[in-house]
Amino acid sequence: PCLQVHSLQELRRSASLATKVFVQRDYSEGTTCQFQTKFPPELESRIERQLFEETVKTLNSFYAEAEKIGGSSYLEGCLACATAYFIFLCMETHYEKVLKKISKYIQEQNEKIYAPRGLLLTDPLERGMRVIEISIYEDRCSSGSSSSGSSSSSSGGGGLGGR
């Protein structure tokens, strides 16, 4: 067992990709953007269930915030119509602001929680908002006992193009 603590840069440079796990969208409450909090068994020895669930629940709350229609969203829509949508050349929408917040949160989670455990979260935006992709890395010094290939935490996640 040569499991080491990694920084984000170290992980990308000195560890080899063993497999990927895909956390699927949860459509139980309609088409709002949220992901399943079901813990993938492939992560069992890598991260505590509570940390994983907390990450997914936080992401789900960010997406709910992004899709919430309030006064500012209504005003954005009115300004967009009044300016033939030119307003968006000089102003970010509420949705875009929240997506930036999500990207920053994922970056922080990778640096503080996931990379030290040999894991890497991919922003769902990079996967068309269909899945949360979690890459599982192995140290190059590990004995070749890894199982290669894609895994899926629920039905239909395999076969998505990776990097």
Automatic annotation (TrEMBL):
<dbReference type="InterPro" id="IPR051371">
    <property type="entry name" value="Ras_palmitoyltransferase"/>
</dbReference>
<feature type="region of interest" description="Disordered">
    <location>
        <begin position="140"/>
        <end position="163"/>
    </location>
</feature>
<dbReference type="GO" id="GO:0000139">
    <property type="term" value="C:Golgi membrane"/>
</dbReference>
<feature type="compositionally biased region" description="Low complexity">
    <location>
        <begin position="142"/>
        <end position="154"/>
    </location>
</feature>
<comment type="similarity">
    <text>Belongs to the ERF4 family.</text>
</comment>
<dbReference type="GO" id="GO:0006612">
    <property type="term" value="P:protein targeting to membrane"/>
</dbReference>
<dbReference type="GO" id="GO:0002178">
    <property type="term" value="C:palmitoyltransferase complex"/>
</dbReference>
<dbReference type="Pfam" id="PF10256">
    <property type="entry name" value="Erf4"/>
</dbReference>
<feature type="domain" description="Golgin subfamily A member 7/ERF4">
    <location>
        <begin position="21"/>
        <end position="133"/>
    </location>
</feature>
<protein>
    <submittedName>
        <fullName>GOG7B protein</fullName>
    </submittedName>
</protein>
<dbReference type="InterPro" id="IPR019383">
    <property type="entry name" value="Golgin_A_7/ERF4"/>
</dbReference>
<keyword id="KW-0472">Membrane</keyword>
